[in-house]
Amino acid sequence: MTGAALQGLWYLAGLSREVKPGAMVRRILFGEPVVLGRTGAGAPFALRDVCPHRAAPLSAGRVSGEAVTCPYHAWSFSAADGRCLSVPALPSDDARDPSTIRVARYALAEANGLLWIWYGAGEPLFAAPDIGLPPSFRPKTATVVETSGPFDEAVVGLVDPAHTPVVHKQWWWREGRPRADKTKAFAPTALGFKMTAHAPSSNSLIYKAIGGAPVTEIEFRLPALRLEHISTATRRVLALTAMTPGEAGTTRIVHLNYWDFALFDALLPFAQGMADSFLKQDGDILRLQNENLSRTRHRALYLGDADEPAKWYFALNKAWSEKGEAEFVNPLAPATLRWRT
Fold first, then answer.
1. Are the CB atoms for 217 and 197 separated by under 8 Å?
2. Helices 308-327 & 151-159, crossing angle to 10 degrees?
3. With 0-12 CB in 10 A as exposed, 13-18 as middle and 19+ as buried, what is 303?
4. Quick check: is 71 in a domain?
5. Rounded CA separation 54/57 (Å)
6. Is 130 part of any domain?
């Protein structure tokens, strides 16, 4: 990664539907083994996926009610706080207290079919991301891509408008359509910036399929979250993309689409294929870029307004790294940018 993952923030750990009651899933997040699971009652949890006894992965064990049992020596740990509940090999009259042993716990929050993990010391300092949808909304499509390269470069792709007509070539997007000058207004937000509400591009069939007179607002939030809300008088769509550092030099990209009207429900398999194709192109170009970045030192060259959002991301990153949540002040100011796409 260009720099270490920002701490004191929420990252997308996974989808609710990936973790069934009484089951566990192993992930490598921030370069560390993490087990995501649900208790028998359905409560989600996240623990370091390393038994403190002999380093066996807890994810290979089992969930028993509210506890996780290691597959190697059956040490048992509370899913809620990670403290050791029992060490079966100890004699019955052994006076040692296993609860003084703990496996590291990560704070986890669940909403709208998403599992958010807090990366940083101590308890969360603020609530998990509110994506602006009623609690009943769940993702209609979900696409996951694992890609290589610096995490910062992957995140820059979330805010880069210039790559879209070059990398993304589908008949239903903008293939064959001429570029046009764009002028967009941006405003700072609590954890980033947004392209303020506007009529979306007329050269995309996706927006036309929604019908009516759609309005879109695109927001970026630290550490790596892009939200595109599209709405008409009667319909609502959210395209959400989130990135989480995985193994060293890899990034997990998750793209989700939410909507609330039957027309798109009928086209669900088609919509899923479109999303998969779109995100694969992002993953492919990042891997190609990393072929060079992994072999040579390179300083990015920024030119024109289309590269301003990338510079904003690094300014936000720097401000957060220096101050953290307690003293963070968004360094950005409102701006109007112009580019061709």
1. yes
2. 110
3. exposed
4. yes
5. 9
6. no
94 with 202, same domain: the answer is no
Structural domain of 334: 141-340
**Is residue 259 located within the same domain as residue 190?**
yes
Q: What are phi and psi of 68, to 5 degrees?
A: -115, 130
Single-letter amino acid, residue 51:
C
Per-residue pLDDT of the chain (341 residues; tens, 9 = 90+): 345 789 999 999 999 999 999 999 999 999 999 999 999 999 999 999 999 999 999 999 999 999 999 999 999 999 999 999 999 999 999 999 999 999 999 999 999 999 999 999 889 999 999 999 999 999 999 999 999 999 999 999 999 999 988 888 766 555 556 788 999 999 999 999 999 988 776 555 566 666 667 889 999 999 999 999 998 878 899 999 999 999 999 999 999 999 998 878 888 888 899 889 989 999 999 999 999 999 999 999 999 999 999 999 999 999 999 988 889 999 999 999 999 98
The structure tokens listed for 9 are: 């923030």
Residue 83, SS3 per DSSP: strand
Say which CATH number the domain at 326 has. 3.90.380.10
Asked if 164 and 295 sit in the same domain, the reply is yes
Distance of CA 161 to the CA centre of its chain: 19
pTM: 0.92
Question: Does residue 131 belong to any structural domain of this protein?
Answer: no
